[in-house]
Give the backbone structure.
Amino acid sequence: MSSTFTGGREGSLEAPTRHPLDWKNPAFYDEAALDKELERVFDICHGCRRCFSLCNSFPTLFDAIDASSTGELDGVDKKAYGEVVDHCYLCDMCYMTKCPYVPPHPWNLDFPHLMLRAKAVKAKKGEVRTRDRILSATDAVGSLAGIPVVAEVVNAVNASALGRKLLDATLGVAVDAPIPQYHSNSARKQLAGHEAQLEVRASEETRGKVALFTTCYGNRNEPDLNLDLVAVFEHNGIPVKIVAQEKCCGMPKLELGDLETVERHKETNIPALKQAIDEGYDIVAPIPSCVLMFKQELPLMFPQDADVQAVKARIYDPFEYLMLRHKAGLLRTDFTSELGKVSYHVPCHLRVQNIGLKTRDVLNLVPNTSIDVIERCSGHNGTYAVKKEFRPASVKIGKPVMNRVQNANPDHYTSDCPMAGHQIETGLKDAKQPEHPLKLLRNSYGI
């Protein structure tokens, strides 16, 4: 390596720890300091290369080094640094599963949050493409595209070859990328005022009634996610109501480095979620990225905010919650149909929650069910897979998952992230569609 480091040892035996994100500090946006830290971290990564098989950030970095005149980082054009940053979609897998130098190691590497800092500097300078601002404005796009009649027109245009060419030309959306449909009859509209009158049965770890954060995607793009969740939970005696108000969790804007907008969304969401908690509810959300936002990213951005920390302590992945109920003997197992062979993809933003394979564990309760667990990235990663310039890389990343599902020829294939499910679908030879685990569980209950 071109730099030398002292102290510490290869690898760390301690559990990784995450430092708060010091994004309010003006020094966070100091470009000279950022460049110095990028050089330090990239040089360590060059000497290790354990992450070569994850996202495209690492091959981009290593290829640039190997092609340089010196074969070291000092020979790399700084333009390549920006390309490395652009390929990072903050999946967190390098930090959680690969890097031997994360805190408490003295080298103190947090590659995803360094990439986030670089994205934030870029956003602060106004260097974010209009296309990226639009794609990440999930609330605004969903509200507009979800208007009755407009939704039908948008869906029809998006499903046509001409419409896809138009999206390619105007927004740089790849013609072969999966894009969601929009529904005017949103989940929040269908569940407004809903809460079943059930006897609340708390357990040692759960309160026994939940407030549902529907998420942008679950509200407008696939409202059945929330309807299936409500049906399954209430079948198990858990009353559900929707959170009083919600905006996007902030993950799409976080991925752009637009931290000010993340804060604005937080100012709407956290008071509503905290109110539900104060009323005795736990919180669930059907999208792993949204749960992770409240479990990890917002608490790291606002470590001194007691309400943010309170939400962190009481928000759950749906299957995490169901397994806690099963642990307490409160989950029904009177299934009416089996699932057979299931290919189950575990999304990155679920893996890094460190809760184990709860979806697999719940589905395994269904008789005559065999779960093939696939713990690899699908390559979708928020808006990454729909952008024309990143589409080939996203398909390459997801190809092993697609091949695994194709070769298994399962009765069902599924992912907790519906977008990952549709990304896998684009790589299969037949037209078989993914089914969300909540749908599989609902069908197994016969409800």
Notes: The CA atoms of residues 182 and 221 lie 5 Å apart. Confidence is low (pLDDT under 50) at residues 1-7. The first strand starts at residue 210 and ends at 212.
